[in-house]
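Honest question from a wet-lab person: if I give you the sequences of every part of a complex, can you actually get the arrangement of the whole thing, not just the pieces? Trying it with mine:
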Amino acid sequence: MKAFIFDLDGVIVDTAKYHFIAWKRIGEKVGFQLSHEQNESLKGVSRVESLERILGWAEVEISSTEKEALLIEKNEDYLQQIDAMGREEILPGVIELLQFAQENNIPVALGSASKNATRILEKLNITSYFNAIVDGNHVTISKPDPEVFLKGAALLNQAPKDCIVFEDAAAGIAAAKAAGMTTIGMGGADEVKTADHCFDTMALIKPEFIRSL
Ligand code: BG6
Ligand code: MG
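Yes, you can. This is the full assembly:
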């Protein structure tokens, strides 16, 4: 059996709605209305890069000190929202797939752009399912660069070609492909259709499918 590498936001839990609320407020501070479509394109993109894109859309130029303040404000707002989140927000089929991995000795890593990943895993009480965690604090180049997934594979002692990546974002699928891994696009959005396989939810992924990979 191959190893699993899970993205976090949008794969394990739907945090995109909280990122959206927080970024929307930041956008409004610089006189800009962030659209749903624009928020979609921020999936998988690091916090710093997300702010840069928003400022670009808003055609606003601010100092690095002001940027730093907005990044802190955004994250405080986001953390306040996710701290109210419970286990019921874990997406369908996730716990079952993590349990399947555990029962079948399939090594599991997290490969996320988020710097809040460990806090979210703790909050959801699922940290113990992961043999390795690579998040936004451990990478120097964000997705679509393969660094986050290659580090995950290395920590699991697995060859990249033996890793299956679960991702919900275009940047993440591109990163996993660049790493030479098998890609599973989650959530059914058009932007993940380039993945090797696609599923609307993890509840639709059967053990026979995993064994066939
Ligand atoms: C990704 C999300 O997983 O993490 C992005 O899809 C987010 O929307 C990025 O910007 C960074 O997250 P954080 O928690 O470090 O702000
Ligand atoms: Mg994601």
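Two things worth pointing out. The chain has a mean pLDDT of 96. The pocket of 6-O-phosphono-beta-D-glucopyranose (ligand 1) is lined by residues 8-9, 19, 42-47, 50, 75, 112-116, 136, 169 (CB under 6 Å).
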